[in-house]
Amino acid sequence: MNLKQELQTLNDKLDKCRRKLAAAEQRGDTTIIMQFKKEIATVTKRIASIKSQQTRQLSKEGSEVMSLAFNRALTKAEQADMGKLKKSIKGLVVVHPMTALGREMGIKAVTGFAPAKF
């Protein structure tokens, strides 16, 4: 299971536990309340761990892309025919500013990174 799926299932589990905790608090069932509080704490800890792991992966990927020798913003015409552009330039990596990688790298425009000038 990849990190994104695991994070989603953990968030679902956390939501479910919080709803059950609220129901148990209405009933006044102390043993169930303690059980769900403990489970919520463990799930929250695991979610934080996965988010930090995702951040590390993005940072690593961003540094690999930034280490490519050449980069420049792509024109609208190049963006429109991305398939042709990628076929003509070997090793081209295109990063959009609205993706997680683009936000991590802090780019403001659609940028192409390549080992050679294009």
From TrEMBL:
InterPro entries per the UniProt record, alphabetical: DUF2810
Gene3D superfamilies: Uncharacterised protein PF10928, DUF2810
One Pfam family, short name: DUF2810
Designated name of the protein: YibL family ribosome-associated protein
Origin organism lineage: Bacteria, Pseudomonadati, Pseudomonadota, Gammaproteobacteria, Alteromonadales
